Amino acid sequence: MKAEIDFQQQILPGLCLITAPLLFCISTFFWVDGQYGVTAATLICLSTVFWIPALYGLFGLLKHNMPFYSAIGLLIAIYGCCMGGIGFGMLGYLSTIFKISHHNYLGVLQQYPISSGLLLFWAGPLFPLSLLVLAINLVRKKAVPVWLGLLVGLAAVAFPVSRILRILLLAHVADVLLLLPLMIIGIGFVKRRKVADL
């Protein structure tokens, strides 16, 4: 029973804290002219499966000190990450295979403002915004070392900027800023170490 609890609450989230941002990192190498394309889009969509346990683990670090925020923040982060990730991933995938230009699909999406907002334009920014708020709370409650929290916060700011500007080098920097702290926290989970002591 204890082994099952350890796996569900520590080992699986820990492994996913490594896998999810790593898939983000790898996907950027497959951008095509600043767009996701087929391979990058596939990796982004697949990463969302790993983001769910990863986010569960991250927000779980605050469940005793901030139970309400931990639950609501997790829900918002999952919505932003998964809906935004899959939405933009599938948009990149489908626009590539059907050869629809960026300009054309933006024009069509404007015809469906509420659906496009819910599935893409409102969901997408919630992921980095939720990470930024999470980073602040993790540092405030001393759930992680300050330097780890700062890296997560920097990644949360750099990530949307890199995706909006579509600058490849900036995207790689944002990916690494996200990967490093989450990988360290993930290794701590897997090794069952107290994250605050890393």
Automatic annotation (TrEMBL):
Transmembrane segments: 12-32, 38-59, 71-94, 114-136, 143-161, 167-190
Top-level taxonomic group: Bacteria
Alphabetic keyword roster: Membrane, Transmembrane, Transmembrane helix
Protein name: Uncharacterized protein
Organism from which the protein derives: Mucilaginibacter rubeus
Lineage: Bacteria, Pseudomonadati, Bacteroidota, Sphingobacteriia, Sphingobacteriales
